[in-house]
């Protein structure tokens, strides 16, 4: 079975503890503190491996932990750093918080390794705590604790075009004709159990990647049937080719099929229903000539307000296929080239620090207020304020950390300026 989901436990390494020791040498009876620092904990790193196309490796092993830093030692020796844990995943893998389902990391466009959980800092040895009044400190700093999290890995295939439709309408036959893919083809439902990827090569360097998404049935968005398992793979596609059995070989109504599947797409993710969609009326060779024009006119009339272009084709004979492919190719040129990437919704670094005292809110001058602190710096570093989700997170951060309440206590009024390091905005309720 195609493995496109896995739940795993990840943990960075704990920082090594600082060491307590004193210099003891011949002729130096009262040597000072010489305890070394602890080593840094290992990082938990994700990296894309082009050779992988499933998450099957993560079905058998569930826990992945980086190495802990070693304790410091005498003579000011720093402990060894913990070993990093590197997790290799296929391109298109999305990492989500298992509890909330929110996106932490999308590996769609990542070419460099990504440190998801940083290892803990090593603690300082007692050599750092000597003062004029405390020349023999007997304590050292413990290492920073490890970060840990349960995450869901989801593979959403990266393809320009998604081939959708009810089971047994000819999607696998179509894919085998237009690409070098060799999907299993037979005359029964759910022949395709895996998303099949293929490359469409057109003249003069034109072409695109297409994915045959296994059949989606009514109720799929609610977990009915096998189709639900593959809805996630449509999420990255920029254009969808909706294949229907125009000849009604199995007695299905192509118009009702299109309406039903689009309802499932909208129920699963409303954004999917807004993506460009092209209707491929398949199996034209299986119906009389006089009936072909009738069914095409019916489809055009039914979806005239949806801006869906209709192409009569035959996946078996190749009739109309080239015209369809060139239309889709030109349509893709009007859309962004980069694969669709999901915005970060869960900011793990901010979950670790609930200390509101690390946030300083003060009035710099009448009408100008500042908000500073390590937690604020981290929030700004991990938040894309230009995205809608990022700005919503920023507003939630200001409210949940009591910043808005503290500004009001200081007497802020509408139109006053609030500064967060390099960011400044006018305050309005």
From TrEMBL:
Pfam families: DUF1967, GTP1_OBG, MMR_HSR1. GTP binds at residues 165-172, 190-194, 212-215, 282-285, 314-316. Mg(2+) binds at residues 172, 192. The gene is obg. The keyword 4Fe-4S does not apply. One of its GO terms (molecular function) is GTPase activity. It is an enzyme of class 3 (hydrolase). Monomer. Its EC number is 3.6.5.-. The lineage of its organism: Bacteria, Bacillati, Bacillota, Clostridia, Lachnospirales. InterPro entries: G_OBG (IPR031167), GTP-bd (IPR006073), GTP-bd_Obg/CgtA (IPR014100), GTP-bd_prot_GTP1/OBG_C_sf (IPR036346), GTP1-OBG_CS (IPR006074), GTP1_OBG_dom (IPR006169), GTP1_OBG_dom_sf (IPR036726), OBG_GTPase (IPR045086). An essential GTPase which binds GTP, GDP and possibly (p)ppGpp with moderate affinity, with high nucleotide exchange rates and a fairly low GTP hydrolysis rate. Plays a role in control of the cell cycle, stress response, ribosome biogenesis and in those bacteria that undergo differentiation, in morphogenesis control. Its cofactor is Mg(2+). Residues 1-158 form the Obg domain. Residues 159-333 form the OBG-type G domain. GO terms for biological process: ribosome biogenesis. This is GTPase Obg. Keywords: Cytoplasm, GTP-binding, Hydrolase, Magnesium, Metal-binding, Nucleotide-binding.
